[in-house]
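Quick one before lunch.
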Amino acid sequence: MSIDWSKLADLIARRERFAVTTHVRPDGDALGSTVGMVGYLRQMGKDARAIIPSQTPPRYDFLDPDHTLFEHFGTKVTPEDLVDRDALIILDLSSWSQMGDVQDWARSFPGERLIIDHHVSQDDMGAIVLKDTSAEATGALVARAIKALGGTFTPEIATGLLTAILMDTGWFHHPNTKPETLRVAAELVEHGAPIDGIYRKLFERSTLGRIKLIGEILSKIETTEDGKIAYSIVTREDFVKTGSIPADTEDLIDYTVCIEGVEVGVLLIEQNKGGIKLSLRSRNGIDCSALAGQFGGGGHKAAAGANLPDPMSESLPRVLAAVKSALKP
Ligand SMILES: [Mn+2]
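Model of the manganese (II) ion complex:
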């Protein structure tokens, strides 16, 4: 699938003051693609601001070393501060619910909206939609857009976009990794993205709390259905006991599918505000996006998630029942 980027070029030509936003609990692709898009808009002489709906996880602070780029909606920036924006670019999401606290402002935004995304699930968000569900990362789409429109990869832009691609491909081991992924990554490295530095920043700066949280999750993993389903849970008590925070759970779902024979991995995380964050991973073709959809969530075929309103005691059996029926031929 290749996207016609002229709609993005037209929007950039028509508008001057951009807000770029992404999803709640932003990951490497969300933040990295935001760095790339804001960098490109500024390169085009535009006024561009990065509006992030949740606090930036500390492990990604290298993407904004001076703390001048990411503006946290609700604390650092309010809707009143954004009345001059005339275009909104939405990255790495296609459903209102993924916008968190930004949702109300974005819904009533009077200017033009444009979405760049690779997720399957989709709401009608009244936007120009530039989507490729076969793309490995939104950051890869932003990289292709910048190339197509004749922009330049600065070291900052290259670092953001490479981080996006690395995280959404699992550092090139997920099946979404294609020859083209490696080519664009090589180009980003040539333009100053430090792949070794990015690795150290992301994976060799764990807090003791996160490492202890990994221990909790591993010690609680169970399998069922002849080892085809592996699941674990994180309770609020686990955060307190280990000294970790909810952002420390990123990627820990991956341990569930490390076990031989597991086809679906499930992780349920109690949220501080109440309710449960569900993460799903699959091997052998089970559709996680459809499974998450049963709970009002979405995502990709091999990786998806949802927010569940009910407590662990009700949510866990309900999710496991849904996964079991998805396994049935
Ligand atoms: Mn993504």
